[in-house]
Design brief:
This protein has 463 residues and is mainly alpha-helical. The protein folds into 2 domains: 23-221, Growth Hormone, Chain: A (Up-down Bundle); 241-463, Growth Hormone, Chain: A. It has 24 helices and no strands. Helix 1 runs antiparallel to helix 6 and helix 4 runs antiparallel to helix 6 (138-149). The relative contact order is 0.14. The model is unreliable at 1-19 and 228-236 (pLDDT under 50).
């Protein structure tokens, strides 16, 4: 059993952490668990995207304004998902992540199906609130579960696979949702008689929510390693509580959560406004914009994953556990440069290529975030700490449309005012995020040494 001297400045006592003596998980069991988590994540993406794709028929059927459609996404899903993340993380740590994730799937798929039976805006808003509440637990629970599903030596690879699947899940969600809507007429004869008479948009919600019970059952069948001695040593950390953990590791938390939150704000500043910019400035049609943005996401994701793996290989031996922080800082800096270069773009294609570069720079670090979060937290607090990060990220990213809109209005009647506003907000956010990440490297290493000294020891033996 290894111990580390108590930290200074009033931090909670450092706990003795024995080596992980829990029973090993077979490759088949680990692969099954990872696959089920990916399925649940893609299902969540489909449930979110179907609401966007069905916005127009819902608007006509329920006499909804564009403002009300915006409230469904902004308040119904995003706001409540952020607010619910912390209490759900606490419940997951206390009562079991596997059980709570299964319940969350039932909640969000049930809420999606309820959208199909909404009779007015109020009932539809309540259903989308349920969707947001259910999906609030996805990231905190999944990132908390992964170390208990896969062997330690495969954890980084499993985190990367899951992170890429989650990123691609948004695009896949749109594709699957669109395919489902196109296939509804063929599905009607296979459905119960009570559902066959529903309008297409109502039926789509019901069909998308239907897999919930099956996916919940698959989650309950995932094999999770017994807590064993590691959890026993973590139980004292659990009693210390999240507030004490955050105070003791304030610089790490501010650097990481602030940096990742600013990264999401910066990316959203362009992701939400680039379609409008290319339509206004270059006359691109909706089809052309969809193909351009979709292609940029795909190319950026592939390039970012490759760049992230290469950077980790080059820096890992020298930086050790600090490698993810450095890769994130580099990625945010590159993203800021790509945003500024958009001001010199003379065609929609150049905008798409620069957006792809920005996506790639974000992906390079994003695939490392799960590992980074797991390395810095005690297992008993993992879901709650990650939930705090989720709340910060949601809060910061929600500022993006407001900041860009306000700056664009202030710059009128300047030519390309919207592009200037979006690029400025994006570049400033990403640059500040990069500085926060880089400045928190040393603090992050100390946090890892405090709660997972075996990782720091492993670094020393490989240098």
């Amino acid at each position: 059993m290894k111990t580390i001297a108590a930290p200074r400045h009033g931090a909670p006592p450092v706990l003795p952490l024995p080596a992980d003596s829990r029973p090993a998980v077979s490759v088949v069991s680990a692969a099954y668990g990872l696959l089920v988590l990916i399925i649940a994540t893609v299902l969540a993406a489909v449930n979110r995207q179907i609401l966007i794709l069905l916005a127009d028929p819902m608007r006509h059927a329920l006499a909804l304004s564009d403002t009300k459609l915006g409230l469904l996404q902004g308040v119904g899903i995003t706001l409540f998902a952020g607010l619910a993340a912390v209490p759900i993380g606490w419940l997951a740590d206390r009562y079991g992540r596997r059980l709570l994730l299964a319940l969350c799937v039932l909640v969000w798929t049930g809420a999606t199906a309820a959208c199909g039976f909404a009779v007015d805006f109020q009932s539809l808003l309540l259903a989308t609130i349920g969707l947001g509440l259910g999906e609030a637990g996805l990231a905190p629970i999944v990132y908390g579960m992964l170390p208990d599903i896969v062997p330690e030596r495969r954890r980084v690879m499993a985190n990367g696979i899951y992170a890429l699947a989650a990123i691609l899940g948004a695009g896949l969600g749109i594709a699957l949702s669109g395919r489902l809507i196109a296939s509804l007429q063929g599905l009607r004869p296979l459905l119960p008689a009570a559902l066959q008479g529903l309008d297409d948009w109502r039926l789509a919600f019901v069909v998308v929510g239907a897999p919930g019970p099956l996916v919940s059952l698959l989650i309950l069948l995932v094999r999770v390693r017994p807590a064993g001695s590691v959890a026993d040593s973590d139980s004292a950390a659990s009693r210390v509580g999240v507030a004490a953990y955050l105070r003791a590791n304030l610089r790490t938390v501010v650097g990481l959560f602030g940096g990742t939150g600013l990264a999401q704000l910066g990316l959203a500043a362009l992701a939400n406004w680039v379609p409008v910019v290319v339509a206004r400035s270059f006359g691109a049609s909706a089809v052309q914009i969809g193909q351009g943005i979709g292609g940029a996401y795909l190319a950026g994701t592939v390039a970012g994953a490759a760049f992230g793996a290469l950077t980790v290989r080059k820096l890992g031996r020298r930086l050790g556990v600090a490698t993810p922080m450095r890769v994130l800082a580099i990625g945010l800096a590159v993203g800021a440069i790509a945003a500024l270069l958009m001001l010199a773009a003379h065609s929609a294609l150049q905008i798409y290529l620069l957006f792809a570069l920005q996506v790639a720079s974000m992906i390079a670090g994003s695939v490392l975030v799960p590992t980074l979060l797991q390395d810095m937290t005690p297992a008993a607090l993992r879901s709650r700490v990650i939930a705090v990060g989720t709340l910060v990220a949601v809060g910061l990213s929600s500022l993006s449309p407001v900041l860009v809109g306000l700056l664009s209005d202030a710059l009128q009647p300047m030519p390309q005012a919207l592009l200037v506003a979006a690029a400025a907000v994006s570049a400033a956010s990403l640059a500040l995020g990069s500085v926060l990440m880089k400045s928190a490297e040393a603090a992050f290493v100390r946090t890892v040494q405090r709660y997972h000294p075996e990782l720091a020891d492993a670094d020393q033996t490989t240098r």
